[in-house]
């Protein structure tokens, strides 16, 4: 089977701008059509999702986000099963932004001098603080393009397209490549709002950062666990030694969270402190992902799709 992971990484390393994403969608649509599937673009304003097959009739929808993140000044470290360390890390990301913003506001009001009223100085301090904090946060979402996105989320995108090419048209599966996950899961949020029956009643298996890790980890919502197809999915994941957690015990902030029957899949590395983690994403070091991971996961999910 062709290595789609490296082909996408070589041909479409950055998928940020409208033109970049459109070029990738056209290429992906052509591949899916050659495999016999119907394909459409679903445009929800500024978010364009690529829909393969018929999600309205599917028993399972395999998904991933195909947009790539901006380069960040610190890695977006995923710590799915260690909540205390995850919150500590979030604080470590936010604290410098707060410190810079507060210090900038203080300097601004000091620069006005004692001759300016207290009210004006306080308003100035608040305005500068707010502008700095919003600006830094904007940089996290809209900073310079990162050309290294092999795990996040070229790996998940490759897994979805691999499954689409291995499974037949008109079967029990459909596939969606979501837009703008990196801007707050906006593509999947718009799709869920436009398709409330799918949001509430269809099993959605989302793959995000599945290329760099020695073990797969699944975060399973209560709705997904009660889906009739879940026992077959659990069997398939157990067959590749995946770790399966209720969503309350394993946090993955990705597109599956916009669906009542969502399952999130990632690949993790072991850690003594955090148990399991996903490194390097949102940085220039996101260059490590394994085609063997994609192939293994796709084979397991292919078997699951045939069984339901």
CATH architecture of the largest domain: 3-Layer(aba) Sandwich
How many domains, in number, for the residues? 2
Q: What's the CATH class of the largest domain, please?
A: Alpha Beta
The first-to-last residue Cα distance is: 24 Å
Report the order of strands and helices.
HHEEEHHHEHHEEHHEEEH
Query: Strand count, sense and closure of the main sheet?
Result: 9 strands, mixed
Distinct helical segment count: 10
Radius of gyration (CA) equals: 21 Å
**Which of globular, elongated, flat, extended, rod-shaped describes the shape?**
elongated
Estimate the strand proportion: 15-25%
Uncertain residue segments:
none
Oligomer kind: single chain
CATH homolog superfamily of the largest domain: Zn peptidases
Look up the CATH topology of the largest domain: Aminopeptidase
Query: What's the overall average pLDDT, rounded?
Result: 93
Structural class, from secondary structure content?
A: alpha/beta
Helical percentage:
40-55%
How many beta-strand runs?
9
């Amino acid at each position: 089977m062709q290595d789609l992971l490296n082909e996408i990484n070589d041909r479409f390393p950055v998928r940020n701008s409208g033109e970049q994403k459109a070029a990738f969608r056209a290429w992906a649509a052509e591949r899916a059509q050659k495999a016999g599937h119907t394909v459409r673009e679903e445009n929800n304003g500024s978010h364009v999702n690529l829909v393969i097959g018929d999600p309205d009739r599917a028993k399972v929808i395999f998904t991933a986000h195909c947009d790539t993140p901006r380069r960040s000044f610190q890695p977006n470290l995923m710590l799915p099963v260690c909540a205390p360390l995850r919150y500590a890390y979030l604080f470590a990301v936010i604290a410098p932004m707060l410190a810079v913003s507060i210090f900038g506001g203080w300097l601004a009001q000091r620069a006005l001098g004692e001759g300016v009223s207290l009210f004006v100085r306080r308003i100035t301090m608040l305005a500068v603080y707010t502008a700095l904090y919003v600006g830094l946060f904007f940089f996290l979402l809209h900073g310079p393009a990162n050309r290294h996105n092999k795990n996040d989320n070229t790996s998940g995108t490759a897994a979805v397209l691999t499954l689409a090419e291995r499974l037949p048209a008109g079967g029990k599966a459909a596939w969606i490549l979501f837009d703008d996950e990196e801007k707050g899961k906006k593509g999947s949020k718009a799709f869920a709002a436009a398709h409330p029956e799918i949001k509430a009643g269809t099993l959605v298996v989302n793959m995000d950062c599945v290329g760099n890790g020695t073990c797969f980890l699944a975060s399973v919502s209560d709705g997904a666990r009660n889906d009739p197809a879940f026992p077959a999915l659990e069997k398939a994941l157990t067959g590749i030694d995946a770790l399966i957690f209720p969503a309350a015990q394993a946090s993955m902030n990705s597109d599956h969270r916009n669906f009542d029957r969502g399952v999130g899949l990632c690949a993790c590395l072991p850690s003594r402190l955090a148990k399991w983690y996903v490194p390097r994403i949102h940085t220039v070091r996101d260059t490590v992902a394994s085609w063997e991971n994609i192939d293994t996961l796709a084979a397991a999910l292919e078997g699951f799709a045939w069984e339901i």
